[in-house]
Amino acid sequence: MKLLVKSSLMVAMLGLAACSQAGLGGSGAGGMNGAGAMGGNFDPASPEYFNQTIGDRVFYAVDQSTLSAEAVATLDQQANWLLNNPSYTAIIEGHADEQGTREYNLALGARRAASAQEYLISRGVAPNRLSTISYGKERPIEICSNEACYSRNRRAVTVIAAGAGV
Amino acid sequence: MKAQLNTLFRGLGLCAALGLSALPVGAQSASGPLRIEITEGVIEPLPFALPVFIADTPDMADAAQDITRVIAADLRGTGLFREIPAEAHISTITSFDSPVQFADWQAINAQALITGSVGRTSDGQMVVRFRLFDVFSQLPLGDGLQFVATPETWRRMAHRVADQVYSRITGESGYFDTRVAFINEEGPKNARLKRLALMDYDGANVQYLTGSSAIVLAPRFSPDGRSLLYTSYESGTPRIYQMDIASVTHRPLADLPGTMTFAPRYSPDGRRVVFSVERGGNSDIYMIDLISGTQTRLTEAPSIETAPSFSPDGSQVVFESDRSGNQQLYIMPATGGPAQRISRGSGRYGTPVWSPRGDYIAFTKQEAGRFHIGVMRVDGSEERLLTASFLDEGPTWAPNGRVVMFTRETAGTNGAPALYSVDISGRNLQRVATPGMASDPAWSPLLQ
């Protein structure tokens, strides 16, 4: 994740055009990929910065919802961004890979979303700005049937939306 | 028999049009030697002859062909029967009431002979009559029967005939006059469009009950077959809805707590529903009394508790929980309270469903990267895996408790789900006809 942040900074220094103000977040498959190769000199207060520079998602081990050190590092930055940008709320989507039964995976996705939500709250983000939804195994982002894809599908994605908390 | 069958026809909109009476056919044997004991496992299917039903009038010839074809397909599809092709027949049935030349059917080694006719009443109703014979004892097996209904219901009349034949020969009730609710799937794996759909058990008469704008999952029939519970994202988050099949209208099941509600299942009397509620990442099992609206929390644990299913007497609930560290099956009283673990093998166990006969629990097992559909006794003994594949899950019982249907999904970027059925003996694995990709089957009770 550190590497990716660096590379997007380099891209920014090269002065490539920033993406235009895109739609917020995106649902399910999450059009924005926090670990992707896209970059740009995003306004640090923009959702694009959140999605692409900080990273909008964290990943989990098989059948687990505990946060890895890498996930914690990402969530720390997400929390800071949310604290610095109080006009945004977030929906945290929990996802599972296809190696599980449908209803269990719904429950597992909810557990993952809640683990990310609880961590953000522990870092000071107001609970009323964070909601969760589980997609179970309904919305994989990678579609191959091996661990390379599964490890990217076991995720919690923080989808930023404009608006104060409820 | 007559009274019982008449009772079956009370109910649905069909009943006004669908009448039934036993023909006065004279001789009748109690139960001859013609018998399949399903429990012993059938290795050699019973050969039957089914000459095309007689058309009472020339304009009924196509209907007679179609009805005969559906009956034969029902019987063959069980794996318990083998059809002797018409080309091999020596005798020709020219009239429904003429005497059967048993020697001709014995000569081709038919053990069961089914004869029938298709006609029309003066007011436009279709009349389907049939008789079943034990060829070697040269006796009818049970009464001849006639079904009278609107011509559009010809498939149901054919299924009724096949149910009668199956039931008389096996001693078990049939499962052909049934429907299957399922999720129709379209589109790529990372953006599937899902619709709640309904079809006859053999894939005919597909009907879509929802659009594809919201993800829908895991339908479950009410015990009267008239409504479905399912989980939908239509409000944004997964919640349980109830679909009235006749009117194709749906509404939230009730004002339920939690962020997500899912995994609903009716009690056998249709008065209660068990389901899962997720709150703060924790899923537990609740029950709602549909008459009083009272909600009861049945489990209270930090682990995942889901996929509850009632015992046929409504007194117990089997469910899955990962309280031991991974998914296993448990049984608790339907009022809540201490749960007993019943799954004992290695691997993970989920989606338990109690057989309508009460003798088995069907489940999904996941072990070493493979998925299985299996059955076990209620105390967890006699575990038997019926299937193995990359991804099999979510069994649903045929109403006679002898066959399960489930989802099988293939691997890879073009992986696609389809419906399959298998006997609880593990034999007769078959793909179920669907218009496209399909998942999450729910088998209806016998139609009324």
3D structure, described in words:
The complex is a heterodimer of chains A (166) and B (448). Chain A is an alpha+beta fold and 166 residues long. Chain A has a single domain, classed as 2-Layer Sandwich (60s Ribosomal Protein L30, Chain: A), CATH 3.30.1330.60. In chain A, 39% of the residues lie in helices and 16% in strands. Chain A has five helices and four strands; from the N terminus they run ααβαβαβαβ. Mean pLDDT of chain A is 82; it is low at 1-37. With 448 residues, chain B is mainly beta. Chain B folds into two domains: 2-37 and 44-170, TolB, N-terminal domain (Rossmann fold), CATH 3.40.50; 179-443, Neuraminidase, CATH 2.120.10.30. Helix content of chain B is 11%, strand content 40%. In chain B, helix 2 crosses helix 4 (154-170). The longest helix of chain B is centred in the first third of the chain and has 17 residues, at 61-77. The two termini of chain B are 15 Å apart. The A-B interface holds A 28-29, 63, 65, 98-104, 106-108, 110-115, 117-118, 131-135, 138-145 and B 188-192, 215, 217-218, 231, 236-238, 259-260, 262-263, 276, 278, 280-283, 304, 306-307, 320, 322, 326-327, 350-351, 364, 366, 369, 390-391, 393-394, 409, 411-413, 415, 440.
Quick description:
Chain A has 166 residues and is an alpha+beta fold. Chain A is built from 5 helices and 4 strands.
Integer average pLDDT of chain A: 82
> How does the helix and strand content of chain B classify structurally?
mainly beta
Helical stretch count of chain B?
A: 4
Task: Tell me how many strands of chain A there are.
Answer: 4
Secondary structural class of chain A: alpha+beta
% residues in beta strands of chain A: 15-25%
Enumerate the spans of chain A where pLDDT stays under 50 for 5 or more consecutive residues: 1-37
The biggest beta sheet of chain B reads:
8 strands, mixed
CA-atom Rg of chain B in angstroms: 23 Å
Which strand-content bin applies to the residues of chain B? 35-45%
